UniProtKB/TrEMBL annotation:
Chain intervals with Basic and acidic residues compositional bias: 1-20
Lineage: Eukaryota, Viridiplantae, Streptophyta, Embryophyta, Tracheophyta
Top-level EC class: transferase
UniProt-recorded name of the protein: RING-type E3 ubiquitin transferase
PROSITE patterns according to UniProt: ZF_SIAH
The species this protein was found in: Triticum turgidum subsp. durum
Pathway: Protein modification; protein ubiquitination
Region called Disordered, residue ranges: 1-24
Length: 253
């Protein structure tokens, strides 16, 4: 018969280990729709409200209901704790742990999502990590590191280059010599084949002392590589463009 003192010791050790871990984990199966808003059927995210009938409602639906249709609601903190701890895998196979209500946003910008090669006529599709090697080895394009939301300088010279953030978010910068005009500067956003957030681009340049010009565009989401174009006048070879790229649904933290 097992000694009672040893049994109690193991029980105490287990409780102490549980307290050290700070949480209990258990593999369970459930129907994910129970974590969706009962009005819009989108994943619930804090703040979450519960009506007198027991239905869970997201903040947007609670605010949009006409006054005469509203029923008494209260904040449902227990459901908020639940959805904050429901984690699901990324469909692209990356190792990131994501909350259920963040799944759609994450998969839009996941570097493991399939992206179309931005080089005209290529048609190669792969995650950005593979696509970066494809652009370097097949198309012989150089890569320039950059950061979103921070300006960087590039010389205005004919040719193409890949702009890469630290999380392998890619842009293709192309400059073409245009007869009698100067240089055409185009930028293609390389993204997974699902809608993403708007991209804002600012290109500034100076072609002569005292002359400063700045062009801005905003490209909306459409699920395919997105391109914008500006003209840098003149044929000078010492012109430097200052470029800033922003994405409303991306963070570089």
């Amino acid at each position: 018969m097992e000694d009672r003192s040893n049994s109690n010791k193991r029980k105490g050790d287990g409780e102490q280990e549980g307290r050290k871990s700070g949480c209990k984990r258990q593999n369970v199966s459930t129907v994910m729709e129970v974590f969706d808003c009962t009005v819009c059927s989108k994943p619930l995210r804090p703040p979450i409200f519960q009506c007198s009938k027991g239905n869970s409602i997201c903040r947007h639906c609670q605010e949009r209901l006409p006054l005469f249709e509203r029923i008494p609601v209260q904040r449902c903190y227990i459901m908020e704790r639940v959805v904050d701890n429901i984690f699901v895998p990324c469909k692209h196979g990356c190792s990131t742990t994501i909350a259920y209500y963040q799944k759609e946003k994450h998969e839009r910008q996941c570097p493991c999502g399939p992206c179309l090669c931005p080089v005209s006529g290529c048609g190669f599709v792969a995650p950005t990590t593979v696509l970066l090697d494809h652009l370097a080895t097949v198309h012989k394009l150089p890569t320039t590191p950059m950061e979103l939301f921070k300006p960087f300088e590039v010389p205005v010279l004919p040719g193409s280059r890949v702009l890469k953030t630290k999380y392998n978010r890619l842009f293709l910068l192309k400059m073409d010599a245009l007869e009698s005009y100067g240089h055409g500067v185009s930028l293609v956003c390389v993204q997974p084949e699902t809608p993403g957030g708007n991209v804002r681009i600012t290109v500034g340049f100076s072609c002569a002392p005292g002359h400063n010009h700045e062009s801005k565009w905003e490209m909306g989401p459409n699920g395919v590589p997105k391109q914008c174009l500006c003209i840098v006048p003149g044929k000078e070879t010492d012109v430097v463009a200052t470029i800033t790229i922003e994405r409303e649904d991306y963070e570089e933290d």
